[in-house]
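Problem 12. The chain below contains 196 residues. Write out its predicted structure in C-alpha cell notation.
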Amino acid sequence: MIVFSNPVALQNETEIIHSLFENGLNLFHIRKPGYSLVEMKQFIEQIHPDWWGKLALHHHHELADEFGINRIHFSERERNNGIGNNFQKKIISTSTHAIEDFNALDTTFEYAFLSPVFKSISKENYLPEIDLFEALKLRTNFKTKVIGLGGIQADNITETLQNGFDDIALLGTIWNNENLLKQFKLCQKIVHSYSQ
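Solution.
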C-alpha cells in the first residue's frame, strides 16, 4: 500500500508522515508539484533520515542522490520525453491512464499507477472515463506491477485488489480524513487481510 503526499503543505505534516511510517507505511510518494527545489529540499530534510529509503520523488529528481532516495517517479509527459540513463540504479515508477499505455511500458518501470479507478476524492471532477476493472482483463504487461489510484478508500480496496490490481495507492482518503491515522490503519488492515 502506497500513500501519496498531500499536494500542498499542511500543518504538522512531517509529524503525520512520521506517524504513518511508525505504523507500518512502506512507501511514501512525495508529489508536491508547486514546490521549488529549495522547498522540496527543506521538506525532505524535515523527514527523519531513517525513512528516506521509503520515499519516492515525483519532482526535483536531482535531490535523490543527496538524500539516498532510490525511487524516482516519472509523469506520463516525462516518460514520453524519455527518461535518460541517469537513473539506471533507481527503482522507477510512472503514471498511466489507459491499459494500452500500461501494456506498452518497458521493463524500466517496476510499477505504474493506473488511474482513476473511482471518482477522485482529492481532485474535483476527476472521474474514470472507462471501467479499469474491465480494461485490466486486457493486461499483457506482467513485468510491471499495476497500482490502482483514484478514489480508493476502505470500502473499495478489496474490490480493487480482486479485479486485477497488484496494489493500491491512497491520497484523498488519508489527507481528507479527520482521523487520518485511524483511516490509514483501517486501509492497511484491509490490504493485509486480502494479501494473506
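Discussion. The CA atoms of residues 42 and 124 lie 29 Å apart. Students who got a different answer should revisit the alignment rule from Section 12.3.
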